[in-house]
Amino acid sequence: MALISFTACMLATHSILELEFAAIRTSPDPCDWTLIRDSFFWFCFFELFKLRTALVATNCMKGTRRRAPRTEEHLGDYHEFRAAAGEAAVLQGEAKAHTIFKRKRGFISYWKCKALNPFFHPNKHGGRHTFKFSEETKLLIHAILWNHAKAHPLSRLGEYKRRCSEEGYGISLSEICKIFKSWRWSFKKPHRKQFNKYKLDNLLYYREFKYYINFIPWAKLKFCDESHFKSKDLCRNQAISPIGETLDIPSSDMNDETFTMTLLTTLDPQSALPFEFDLRVGSNTQWDFLNFVIYLLDNEKLVAGDFFIVDNASVHHGHDAFPLLCNLLVAAGVHLIFLPKYSPELNPCEEVFSLVKGHLRCYRGSDRFWHEILKSLLKVSYEHVYKFYKHAIEFA
Asked: What pLDDT is recorded for position 84?
């Protein structure tokens, strides 16, 4: 009835307003402010009635579809409502509980598990976005993650989760990330460092080597080392082409060539070159190294009183060839000295190899790879080797 009455008033007001505006249009005096004022009053009155009519209509429509009161309000406590939903799912099944409590199947399934196992999720209100362990358990999980990270820093995130699962704590990857973030930890590229170099016995030997090498004439120091030369790694890696276009350069089987060079450096003024070398295809063995030493002894590149210094590579002290090597050097009066472990900075051969490979990368020509290696090696002068000796001995 209220809706009908307001509708009738709205129609009557609209008719009156139309008559008033018609009177304004037919009035002889265009400035009849009384008519204009009354018309404005009726216009506002009409708008108010229209607004009220709309509100009443909306309230009437709401009244026809009013929602039934929530079930949990009759239980009093929302937690009791959830517990009752779980018990109903256990007794009558999830489908029946879903119909009775009007909740999603996941809600019913979760609280069913909660009813069957009170320790399924210790939180009172549950939820995936809250931490599900007590304070004591949190400390244990932090300790597990901390110890595993210190013992195995290269572990992936899944391995941390597996480690916690082994201890009986089912924790998600996101929670592990939150723990690391709270510690201000992050995954990063590690800087690999050779810790065996700093063991006590190696440090003591390093100190002895540093002390005694300063009393040996440089002309008597003969350093020896090996290095691999891979063709595909020693090419110029820059070329010019139009912007936005890919430059394709034809490759060949020669880029798969690999050579190994065994090098001996010397500052003996009687030597024509400041080095002796042996270049072979592929890798080298302990017998290849032994043959190179025999060549040096036969050609008097190693003579009595020389100090033959090598690193700790396996080819230098192979189980089969090493006894014969020692006998040959002792018979020739050559002293064999091993460098401290993991100390390439004490070997001038390393800087010679670096110079040769750098020249190959920048100035390599179109000849065969072994020919280019020899041309780059001939760029090494006596002054270069002297400077490398000085750097190695002063560094020691």
From this structure: 83
